[in-house]
Amino acid sequence: MTKDKDLYGKEREFPLEYTITRDSLDEVIFVEVAVDAMDMIKGNNANPYETEGIKWKGSQLARLVFDISSIGNNEPKPNENPKIQGNKKSF
């Protein structure tokens, strides 16, 4: 988590990093993204931190594209990104 100012100038904690675990190395994956400003817009300017049912209201799908060409044979080495955790690979 990291501290930053929210839409109203109040300091809050926000996620700094995400871990995505996959069974295979894919060049493209899809995720759902939500940002407080998007939630506020979709919630007719309702406070996204305090109004019930506003969180994730403005979420959108996003496409993440990875250049995995330098990995070679799609098998990463241990201790390198993507990290191998058991039989799953994490980005």
Summarize the structure in words:
The protein is mostly beta strands and 91 residues long. 8% of the residues lie in helices and 31% in strands. The protein contains one helix and seven strands. The strands form three sheets. It has a three-stranded antiparallel sheet, with no helix packed on it. A two-stranded antiparallel sheet has the order 1-2. Strands 4-5 form a two-stranded antiparallel sheet. A hairpin with a 5-residue loop joins strand 1 (2-5) and strand 2. The radius of gyration is 17 Å and the shape is elongated.
Question: What layout of secondary structure does this protein have?
Answer:
Layout: E1 2-5, E2 11-14, E3 21-22, E4 28-33, H1 36-42, E5 60-65, E6 83-85, E7 88-90
Antiparallel strand pairs: 1-2, 3-7, 4-5, 6-7
Tally of helical segments? 1
Low-confidence parts: none
* Widest sheet, order of strands: 3-7-6
Order of helices and strands: EEEEHEEE
Q: Please, what is the average pLDDT?
A: 83
Backbone CA Rg = 17 Å
Shape: elongated
Strand percentage, roughly?
Answer: 25-35%
Number of strands: 7
Structural class: mainly beta
Distance N terminus to C terminus? 18 Å
Residue share in helix? under 10%
Biggest sheet overview: 3 strands, antiparallel
Can you summarize this structure?
This protein has 91 residues and is mostly beta strands. The chain has 1 helix and 7 strands. A hairpin with a 2-residue loop joins strand 6 and strand 7 (88-90).
